[in-house]
Amino acid sequence: MKILIATSNTGKIAEIKSLLSVLDIEIVTPSDVGLSLEVAETGSTYLENALLKANVYSQESNLLTLADDTGLEVAALNGIPGIHSARFINDPHATDKDRRSLLLSKLQPHARPWKARFVCAAVLMRPGEAAVHALGECQGEIIPQERGEHGFGYDAIFLVDGTHKTMAELTMEEKNSTSHRAKAVKALFPFIG
Ligand code: ITT
């Protein structure tokens, strides 16, 4: 039994591999099965985008497929960057660091605390079958200085509620015990296998 992790984001791949390692299933990535796909995130919700990715990857691979779509919602910016978290900067070569810097510059005029949350929609799809999905979220606050070396994306400026640590200061095991993605993916465990 194999499961394909339908993402090109190496940070996500590492986290999801670790999450799924407790299950008795072979985990493969797009590059393992010779796939290099760009799926346009044209949905209006995280779930729609995750479904778009799961659909394309499961059709192309003919494998049980797990996809996620994640966004960071900052209250002072009315939920921005939200479902546009990946395309927050309109430049395909923009880095995670560029996105963090742009977010901090937009927050400068606003009073702290900069409350925020990560939201993740995870979708599990067998080729030709109806999908199952789950949502997970994680509450926190954006801070002006980057802290921590772990994780990816916006982790270094996201202070996790109740921990005094940014998500990038958590080990992968710690992130995987509390994160938005961990909650969503673990909720799908009963459907894997
Ligand atoms: P795929 O679509 O290939 O899965 P992506 O990087 O485009 O990869 P998303 O659309 O879900 O994935 O991510 C939107 C943005 O949010 C992107 O810039 C990510 O780096 C960032 N992001 C996603 N999950 C994150 C997490 O757990 N912690 C910090 N940032 C995250």
Automatic annotation (TrEMBL):
Its EC number is 3.6.1.66. It catalyses: ITP + H2O = IMP + diphosphate + H(+); dITP + H2O = dIMP + diphosphate + H(+); XTP + H2O = XMP + diphosphate + H(+). Keywords: Hydrolase, Magnesium, Metal-binding, Nucleotide metabolism, Nucleotide-binding. The active site is at D69. One of its GO terms (molecular function) is nucleotide binding. Substrate binds at T7, S8, N9, T10, G11, K12, T70, F152, G153, Y154, D155, K175, H180, R181. Its cofactor is Mg(2+). It is an enzyme of class 3 (hydrolase). Mg(2+) binds at D69. Homodimer. Pyrophosphatase that catalyzes the hydrolysis of nucleoside triphosphates to their monophosphate derivatives, with a high preference for the non-canonical purine nucleotides XTP (xanthosine triphosphate), dITP (deoxyinosine triphosphate) and ITP. Seems to function as a house-cleaning enzyme that removes non-canonical purine nucleotides from the nucleotide pool, thus preventing their incorporation into DNA/RNA and avoiding chromosomal lesions. Belongs to the HAM1 NTPase family. This is dITP/XTP pyrophosphatase. It comes from Anaerolinea thermophila.
